[in-house]
Write a structure and sequence with these properties.
By secondary structure, this protein is α+β, with helices and mostly antiparallel strands. It has a single domain, classed as Alpha-Beta Plaits (2-Layer Sandwich). The chain contains two helices and four strands; from the N terminus they run βαββαβ. The strands form two sheets. The protein has a two-stranded antiparallel sheet with strand order 1-4. Strands 2-3 form a two-stranded antiparallel ribbon. The chain is elongated, with a radius of gyration of 12 Å. The protein starts with 5 loop residues before the first strand and ends with a strand.
């Protein structure tokens, strides 16, 4: 069975850096950025985007709906 391929896009303006997405990610794709957004939060960002499987765990646990998940067609 081929591995699923996914990609995430984070709304860095809305992200408050709660890190729930990092905990929920089974492939450790998400990291916290060293930079801060306009509100002063370190926002989440895909640190290892090639490992994303498009599982949507990160988007489901995000309390502010900052993450959009895309899946590549197989």
């Amino acid at each position: 069975m081929a591995k699923a391929k996914g990609a995430i896009v984070v709304d860095t303006v809305k992200c408050k850096g709660c890190e729930l997405c990092m905990v929920a990610c089974p492939t450790n794709v998400i990291v916290m950025a060293k930079e801060v957004n306009g509100k002063g939060y370190h926002y989440s960002t895909p640190g290892n985007p090639d490992a994303c499987i498009g599982c949507t765990n990160c988007a489901v646990v995000c309390p502010d709906s900052c993450i959009t998940v895309y899946r590549a067609k197989a």
